[in-house]
Amino acid sequence: MCYMSGRSEVGVRELRQNLSVYLARVKKGERLVVTERRQVVAVLAPADVSDDPLARLIAAGRATAATRPIAALPRPLASRSKTPISQALRELSGDAI
């Protein structure tokens, strides 16, 4: 049986006939290259099932991990304006009558 060998490359026909065996190998962390007529058509790899969206963004390079805790951030500055924020926003949006 071909699937007993330690190869990391498998043909489409072999994969289809022994899918459960190859999926078990992938579940253990192995990556398999799938070929069709000796041409690479796919790569089977373990899924990244991280439930943390931030961890996925950091892993993808789309976010950066925090370098300090939230408690270390400075306190927000107090507003010096006497105008309520809701009123200022209405005036800026042009909806003021």
Helices and strands, with pairings:
Blueprint: E1 9-11, H1 12-17, H2 19-27, E2 32-36, E3 39-44, H3 53-59, H4 85-93
Parallel strand pairs: 1-2
Antiparallel strand pairs: 2-3
Let me know the largest β-sheet. 3 strands, mixed
Low-confidence runs of at least 5 consecutive residues: none
What's the gyration radius in Å?
A: 28 Å
Mean pLDDT: 85
Determine the N-to-C terminus distance: 81 Å
Q: Can you give the helix content as a percent range?
A: 25-40%
Q: Could you give the order of strands across the largest sheet?
A: 1-2-3
Q: Number of helical segments?
A: 4
What is the chain-wise order of helices and strands?
EHHEEHH
Number of strands: 3
Strand content: 5-15%
Q: Pairing-aware structural class of the strands and helices?
A: alpha+beta
Using the alpha-carbon principal axes, give the shape: elongated
